[in-house]
Amino acid sequence: MSVQEGPVASRLPDSLVGYWENDLVKIGATLAAVYLLYVVAGLLLGYGLSGQLNSLRRLTFLIVLYSIGALVVNLHWGYSGLFNIGVVGFMAVGVYTTTILTRPVAGQNPTGTLPGLGLPLPIAIAGGVLAAALVGYLAALPSLRLRDDYFAIVTLAFAEIIRITAKASELQEFTIFGTTVGTGGGRGIRTYPNPINQFFEGTGAPIVNAVSGTIDGPLVSGWTFVLALTFVLVCVLWVIVRIVESPFGRVLKGIRDDEEATTALAKNTGSFKIRSFIIGCGILGLLGIIWQGSQGYISPSLFVPQLTFFIWIAVIIGGAGSNTGSIIGSILFVGTIYLGPGYVRRLVEEFVSLSGRATNFPDALGALAGGDISGIILYTLDQTSALRVILTGVLLIWLLKRRPDGLFGNRREMASSIDVESRVRDRQSNDSTAGGEE
Amino acid sequence: MTDTAVGGYDNVRAVRVREIVFLTETSEGCRRWISAMPSKLLDIENQFLLQGKYQEWPHEHISLLINIIKGEYHKHTAVLLRFWCISLQIIIYGVIMKMYPHVTLGPIGTVRERLPFAEHAIKIAAIIFGLAVLFDMFRQLTTGELTIALIAGYLWRGLSYGLVIGLAGVGLSLTYDLLDFANFAHGDYITLSAFVGWGVAYLVAGFGQFKTGSLLFLGVGGTVYPQDVGISVTNAPIAILIGLVMAALVGALLAVALDSAVYKSMRGAGNITLLIASVGVAFILRYGAVYLFTQQTFGLTADSWSYKLGLPGGTVTITSASLLLIFVSLLMMLGVHLLLTQTKLGKSMRAMAANQQLARVTGIPSEKIIRRTWLIGGALAGIAGFMIALLQGTINYQIGWTLLLLVFAGVIMGGIGSVYGAIVGGILVGLITRVSLIWIPASFTEATGFAVMILILLTRPAGIFGGDVS
């Protein structure tokens, strides 16, 4: 696969260009740049070692999870041409199934918490992944004949139905076949304990005690968990790369480029699309289990559609069709839009002394009319979560207008093993140079 | 299936000319063969060949043709050329058919592709399900679990809710058809214009008594409460009306401004690109509303007059808000109907919706029509937003988003591009979601609407009216 020199490569000295072409170097360099930014921000905010480590832990945690989501979206959209905007629904199915499977059975559960089936965590995780894949099958089976924008509406409606079901008070606690289970409704439900935390609270406690002089104890289990998640990311990347480079993946790329042509080559495109969709949904179920599930508590409000589009924008930044692009897109999205506004707010509060307070917009506006801009700045900084989404929207539109291919969209892998288009390009460039000589 | 215009005229449609069957859209090979000319023109010339059967022509084709003949759209010579080309083709066809009466100009006999088994199964299942539901309703009525008053209450609420959905759907349906993308920001046009409309209504009702800023921002942060302002349909009709007009204005301006800022430079960028861009617009609008109004849910109206209609088994409460809603919605729908049938703008809009290329060829200024379509669609969305807030008595930043998927359900049900379909579809969605309360718990009201939409998409993606209503 030939790599076209991007704008970054052209600005680097020749000796470094060779390194830049390596995908790992690209990811590492982007990650290092974002880390550096946050270390500097941490220094400015006066964080100690523990504070710095914790800030980087949170950054890495989100980057890894968004990367997994982005890789799946890329498998669906970038490789198979399936426009899935119900990502969050499949995550919800995974994590809710696992939670209900692991909750202690009725009678053994602590008072005030919901009972479940009391299965061990590994079996429950497998159950959650299978449930997400099954729901993916149900969503994809009838919808594959639809146009891609109808498919998008169906997946979104599916995700909303799942969220409404999880929120329904009727399913908060119910008894079926003599077993009492429940989703917790709008109040949410406590999830399973994180095994890594359990390890460091039990047998691993001496390790925590040994380092507790230099850094905070919880950081040990936190970073171990992040490393475990990174391992999961590597596994997911390996699986997806294996899939898209196999004959199966070539058919997927063929479907994306021209479904009719692929059908003409006697490939049952529907079956390939369904299988690709199911694999992705299973991984999304796993993502929900290790993301929201690991936080100890889930509620339907965690699974709102905007999370889907947060994952989507990571893919769009990186460029659909490139796994490296998806990971770099996730790093950039989490580093700038997702966590950025919060840090900017803390930095402003640290270094700019702003008097006056505004708890609502008309007050802030009134202060502004009186010549006091600190009110509106404080109010704006308080609205971090709204600003994050507004920024996402602005970036989405800007990217689609200016760089619809994203950073690595030009690296879209061809369905055929020979790059036919490059031959055409070569011929055209030869013709044009030949024409110039005449 | 991929590029078939769903909901428009170019649907699966077989036209018989003597023994010759033209399949305009179903057969790929045939479509390639005739792709040189717009299918609508082909239809017109086919109808010429039918001689004397023009009473079967679709109404709009006749008017279009008459317009062409009268020279109403003869602004460009291209139209004239096109017309002569058609005439020439007609003569050629006529000659061929005179000389070789048995010649075939297209595939014969393959009028319809055989439906796969799954579709038959789905259809039969839907019919059985519908019958079972009806049967169960009568059973519940006889046993007394269900009363006439209860059903009437559901129907009344479903109708008012459905009218709002239909009103909001008109704009969505038209722009979906004209620009070929699902506008996910439409729900947030509803939200933002409802907020501004209600702010202005508060300002008018409480002017002088409270601070202007608090009134305009609906008393965000607990500075003004609805009981203080005491706004309702009967107490402050002027404020409500001014707010309604304001909501329509804001909706219209918002739609046009966003079109020229975002969508205009992306025409023809592909439906998925535009869809994602509209999600970006939706985010900016929705969280812009959060920035201005926070995530608070505002109570809006004070108690007002209502009428209790006595029916067997209880009463149905008819509020002044729902009466105003039904009156305004019907007025707006009548207005849209008159606009579409009586004015030149409406005719151009319908022509564009039916066949965009042909409309351009006939000299309709497409950009201007698109702008006016946004204007009308945005205004109706604004009115729908103001009305749904009035009906519910509350407003928050998600009001439009919650409505959006139901609006999509109505639009798809009615067939994309069909204005009347969107209205009828919207009313149906409203009725279905409310009447389903007989069997399904209230938590699932919206889920029922979405499920119905998915079912419609799977079974009849062209809409239940076959998409031939526009």
- The share of residues in extended strands of chain B comes to 5-15%
Q: Counting H and I runs of at least 4 residues, what is the number of helices of chain B?
A: 18
Globular, elongated, flat, extended or rod-shaped: what is the shape of chain A?
globular
- How many separate structural domains of chain A? 1
Amount of helix of chain A: 55-70%
The H/E string of chain A reads HHHHHHHEEEHHHHHHEHHHHHHH
Largest sheet strand order of chain A: 1-2
What percentage of the residues of chain A does DSSP assign to strands (E)? under 5%
Q: What integer value in Å does the Rg of chain A equal?
A: 25 Å
Low-confidence stretches of chain B: 1-40, 49-58, 68-78, 103-114
Question: What integer is the average pLDDT of chain B?
Answer: 75
Q: What does the average pLDDT of chain A come to?
A: 82
Number of strands of chain A: 4
The biggest beta sheet of chain A reads: 2 strands, antiparallel
The CATH topology of the largest domain in chain B is what?
ABC transporter involved in vitamin B12 uptake, BtuC
Q: SSE string of chain B, helix = H, strand = E?
A: EEHHHHHHHHHHHEEEHHHHEHHH
Distance between the termini of chain B: 21 Å
Oligomer type: heterodimer
Number of helices of chain A: 20
Total domain modules of chain B: 2
Instruction: Find the biggest chain interface.
Output: A-B, 52 and 53 residues
Question: What is this entry, summarized?
Answer:
The complex is a heterodimer of chains A (about 450) and B (about 475). With about 450 residues, chain A is an all-alpha fold. Chain A has a single domain, classed as ABC transporter involved in vitamin B12 uptake, BtuC, CATH 1.10.3470.
Structural overview:
The complex is a heterodimer of chains A (438) and B (470). With 438 residues, chain A is mainly alpha-helical. Helix content of chain A is 69%, strand content 2%. In chain A, strand 1 and strand 2 (179-181) form a beta hairpin. Residues 1-5 of chain A have low confidence and may be disordered. Chain B is mostly helical and 470 residues long. Chain B has helices at 28-34, 39-50, 59-70, 77-99, 117-143, 148-179, 186-205, 212-216, 226-229, 237-263, 271-293, 320-342, 344-354, 356-361, 366-392, 399-414, 419-435, 445-459, and strands at residues 14-17, 20-23, 298-299, 306-311, 314-319, 394-395. In chain B, helix 6 (148-179) runs parallel beside helix 12, helix 6 packs across helix 16 and helix 7 packs parallel to helix 11 (271-293). Chain B is globular. Residues 1-40, 49-58, 68-78 and 103-114 of chain B have low confidence and may be disordered. At the A-B interface, helix 7, helix 14, helix 17 and helix 19 of A face helix 8, helix 11, helix 16 and helix 18 of B.
